[in-house]
Specification:
about 140 residues, two-stranded antiparallel sheet, 2 strands, disordered N terminus
């Protein structure tokens, strides 16, 4: 039987099981060392985000999910839609770099061999709508 602190869910697109031991916030803090507890949910990050209309969770909601140890955040497409433009980090009144938080969540999934950055799976309409900066970020992630 899994312990209460074990994170166990199934990724919806890949049907791969996601298992982490310990709290999600601890995993994230180990990777990014951002003070997520400083976020007071003002929404400034969401207001400046170029992808907010496509996201299923706003950046501040992602932070809240991490703090509350809600494993559903790992199923969010928001993690993969973040273009790492740093607008949220620049505007955050609490100086939280949300971009590195998103990278940490991606890293957790990538360590489990779960990846959402397959450009061939995008429709032509999505390719036209997505800002060019996102494609640059996508290529950076894939090329290294």
């Amino acid at each position: 039987m899994p312990s209460e602190s074990e994170i166990d869910c199934e990724h919806p697109d890949t049907a791969r099981e996601i298992k982490l031991t310990g709290k999600l916030v601890d995993e994230v803090l180990e990777l990014c060392n951002e003070n997520v507890f400083g976020c007071y949910q003002c929404g400034t990050c969401a207001a400046g985000c170029p992808f907010i209309e496509e996201m299923d969770l706003t950046p501040d909601e992602v932070i809240r999910h991490v703090i509350l140890d809600k494993k559903e955040v790992l199923n969010s497409k928001t993690i993969w839609l973040c273009s790492t433009c740093f607008i949220c980090a620049e505007r955050c009144p609490r100086d939280i770099n949300i971009t590195v938080l998103m990278e940490a969540l991606r890293q957790i999934l990538l360590r489990l061999s779960i990846d959402e950055t397959e450009i061939t799976s995008l429709s032509e309409e999505e390719k036209r709508k997505i800002p060019q900066m996102a494609f640059v970020s996508l290529f950076r992630k894939n090329i290294g």
